[in-house]
Predict the structure.
Amino acid sequence: MSIKLIVFDMAGTTVKDENKVADTFSAAMNKYGYHVTVPDVNPLMGYEKSIAITKMLHTHEPDAAKITPQLIKDIHQEFISLMIKYYQTAPVLEALPNAEATLAALRYAGIKIGINTGFSKDIAQTIVERLQWCEKGLIDFLIGSDEVPEGRPNPAMIQQLMKLAGVTDAQEVAKVGDTEVDIREGQNAGCKYVIAVTTGAFTRAELEPYKPTHIIDDIANVISIIN
């Protein structure tokens, strides 16, 4: 059965990150008095960001009563503001090596390309606009974690992209991402291929325990996997 839709993550999978997401997450938490380091944040990469903030607060705030929806919302909004400003103004914002060529080749072969992310839609849209992926004809669909009731590892984003693509069988779908929750999202959706890449927050050794169908060092290898 051929693959009709491939769902790619953004930061660390198709978009060069250089740990800016973790840096910004740390800065947002620090503004509200929580000393959260980049190594603290890295295991949470890929999660919908308000969930990641909640997890961090439960680690760093001994008084659970202070962990209110408003605090979570405020920190998340700070993160969003910082990320949008960064992606709008960074001197260089780049796709990862071979990412654009891979997306182009897959679309040329008639496969639909969906982009999903732990970012909210406004951040994701900022990145796509800056990279001009729609103008370049590289993607068909884009979804942010705030557009579904529950983010990763819940499969709702993949399921929504399947609806948009007119795909009803998850065995015609591949998921590609760089984190634990990318893998679990693809597995929970029942994707035929769940492909992990080592270009982001997790090493090969860190990805192996989650049992993706494949682990690759170069996104271009997606093409040979699905063929």
Q: What stands out?
A: The longest strand covers residues 112-116. The chain has a mean pLDDT of 95. Residues 119 and 144 are 6 Å apart (CA to CA).
